[in-house]
Write a structure and sequence with these properties.
Low-confidence stretches: none
CATH superfamily: Winged helix-like DNA-binding domain superfamily/Winged helix DNA-binding domain
CATH class: Mainly Alpha
Strand order of the largest sheet: 1-2
Largest sheet: 2 strands, parallel
Strand content: 5-15%
Number of strands: 4
Length: about 110
DNA sequence: ATTGTGACGTTGC
DNA sequence: TGCAACGCCACAA
């Protein structure tokens, strides 16, 4: 089962460059399941089971909001990690999300 | 096999 | 322009 949908998500998530962020939908589209954006987030929840360190903090929803911060244990963990990447977070929202947005379907294709 | 859920996305009002 | 509801696919029980 080395090609599970979840593994696919983990692989893309690991490829997210430092200081960049992406959206669940972008990953979902890249995986070929644009309507399964929710699965991407769910995969992140299971990212712990993946056995590998997945920078889920770099993955946010389409609005650039840290929707999954609640799943990091502490709601501050995600924002703190993003700030450590040089990203500014205000009210759980990423500033300049448009510039920091990293599209796997585009970056990986180029 | 069926039901329920889920860290989203889109469309409608 | 802002908020609400629906839909969607994939996985777990």
């Amino acid at each position: 089962m080395e090609k599970d949908f979840f593994q696919r998500v983990y692989d893309v998530a690991e490829q997210i460059p430092f200081g960049r962020v992406t959206s669940y939908g972008a990953i979902a589209v890249f995986l070929g399941a644009a309507r399964s954006a929710r699965m991407v987030g769910w995969a992140m929840n299971n990212s712990s089971t993946c056995g590998r360190n997945i920078p889920a903090h770099r993955v946010v929803n389409r609005k650039g909001l840290l929707t999954g911060k609640n799943h990091f244990g502490n709601t501050d963990t995600m924002s703190q990690l993003l700030e450590a990447e040089g990203i500014t977070i205000v009210d759980d929202q990423i500033i300049d999300f448009d510039k920091l947005f990293w599209d796997p379907a585009m970056e990986l294709t180029r």
